[in-house]
Design brief:
Elements: H1 8-21, E1 24-30, E2 36-45, E3 50-55, H2 59-67, E4 69-76, E5 79-90, H3 97-107, E6 118-131, E7 141-144, E8 147-148
Antiparallel strand pairs: 1-2, 1-4, 2-3, 3-6, 4-5, 5-6, 6-7, 7-8
Length: 150
């Protein structure tokens, strides 16, 4: 039997918990000609945006830089947070050291230590939806135009 639907306020709280505690997120992007690409990336959440790092020349890096948008998924299919975000591409030395240090401590990965072409990708949520089962499809939109609705 399905659990009763959570309130929208509880769903927001659950999404914020995931953002603050999960370490990996699925990142979906597409090339200019519409070829989709999906990868898991480690991230850090600062309360406003997710910070991830990947090779600038990788399909994900190229797609995010070209389109300036990404779709992210946290959780699993029966408890998902789907995030559409605006992407800002930053050189590895563009952030204050404490931001990179926090990312490295949280994820166990420090792209600043690599000699390859990594970049930071700061993804600011514009739309967030969260639901578990069919009974939570109504009211699943928790953020629109970068503003929480609840």
């Amino acid at each position: 039997m399905d659990a009763p639907p959570r309130s929208r306020a509880q769903r927001r709280s659950d999404v914020e918990h995931r953002l603050g505690h999960d370490v990996d997120v699925w990142v979906a992007s597409a090339s200019a000609d519409g070829v989709p690409h999906l990868v898991p990336l480690s991230f850090d959440w600062d309360g406003e945006a997710l910070l991830a790092a990947t090779l600038a020349a990788s399909p994900t890096g190229r797609n995010l830089a070209a389109t300036g948008t990404a779709r992210l998924a946290l959780g699993h299919t029966r408890d998902v947070a789907l995030i559409d975000g605006a992407v800002e591409v930053l050189a590895l030395d563009a952030l204050p050291p404490h931001v990179g240090d926090r990312f490295a401590a949280r994820t166990g990965f420090d792209p600043r230590s690599l000699a390859t072409g990594y970049r930071w990708f700061r993804i600011t949520p514009q739309r967030i939806r969260g639901w578990r089962e069919e009974n939570e499809l109504a009211g699943r939109e928790l953020m629109r135009d970068g503003r929480w609705l609840v």
